[in-house]
Amino acid sequence: DVKVTQSSRYLVKRTGEKVFLECVQDMDHENMFWYRQDPGLGLRLIYFSYDVKMKEKGDIPEGYSVSREKKERFSLILESASTNQTSMYLCASRGSGAYEQYFGPGTRLTVT
Amino acid sequence: ILNVEQSPQSLHVQEGDSTNFTCSFPSSNFYALHWYRWETAKSPEALFVMTLNGDEKKKGRISATLNTKEGYSYLYIKGSQPEDSATYLCAVENYGGSQGNLIFGKGTKLSVKP
Q1: What's the CA gap between A26 and B89, in Å, rounded?
Q2: I need a surface site. Which of A15, A39, A70, B2 has the fewest CB within 10 A?
Q3: pLDDT by residue for chain B (114 residues), tens digit each?
Q4: Cβ of B102 under 8 Å from any chain A Cβ?
Q5: How many CB atoms lie under 10 A from the CB of residue B74?
Q6: CA-CA distance, A101 to B28, in Å (whole number)?
């Protein structure tokens, strides 16, 4: 079974803090994704990566950056957390040429 | 930006009822449609991926159909059970987009009462 894990299920941070959300997948997938999910909205793509050290902006990249130094790990970075970044963050991975995306369990981030 | 619409937003049914919900999307440049089930406190789980017009897929009591010409997909649940309670997400992938980029609808939240 594909496994996508995220470093924390719940996280509380203060405004202005630098926040790292980590995602690890164990299936050697080339493609990895970060989404956020807010009430009344669908999952929205923040950033994705199709290879090590490669990254592309999704629909809502403002206020975020990412890092992919190893194939299995994709990090989402909030350079200076703000209250409007309080959300559920989901990581996903997908093999090259495959259809399915596999999701992690999510990190619920609260910025106070 | 591609717009994926799901209806209804939420649904409450009794155990044993059959139910269905809809996903609508622009039909131009269509590549694939995904259905996911997302239970509370769990990861979204892939149910179906469909690519061809007229596709029908089935997994146990759950089935889905796809009409790419008119831009819609139906998800059916036969004889709903309390364990079917979840949010059902539809996502569409287009030609010309970066590989694997899914545009998600807002989901349909299903509650099944015993």
Answers
A1: 24
A2: A39
A3: 578 999 999 999 999 999 999 999 998 889 999 999 999 889 999 999 999 999 999 999 999 999 999 999 999 999 999 999 999 999 999 876 666 689 999 999 999 999
A4: yes
A5: 14
A6: 22
CA distance B112 to B85: 6
| Residue B46 vs residues A22, A92, B43: alpha-carbon distances, Å | 22, 12, 10
Rounded CA-CA distance A4/B43 in Å is: 9
How far does B101 lie from chain A, in Å, by closest CA? Answer: 8
Write the DSSP symbol of residue B97. Answer: S
Measure CA of the first residue to CA of the last residue in chain B; give whole Å: 40
The answer to whether the CB of B44 falls within 8 A of the CB of A90 is yes
Q: Looking at the complex, report in whole angstroms how far the Cα of residue A110 sits from the nearest Cα belonging to chain B.
A: 16
Task: For residue B105, list chain A residues with Cβ-Cβ distance below 8 A.
Answer: 42
Residues of B in contact with A44 (CB under 8 A): 104
Residues of B in contact with A32 (CB under 8 A): none
Interface membership of A95 toward B (CB under 8 Å) = no
* pLDDT tens column, A18-44: 999 999 999 999 999 999 999 889 899
Q: Tell me the three state secondary structure of residue B82.
A: helix
CA distance A93 to A100: 9
CA distance A85 to A110: 8
Q: Which two tokens stand for residue B91?
A: 């996502």
Pairing status of strand B108-113 against strand B10-14? parallel
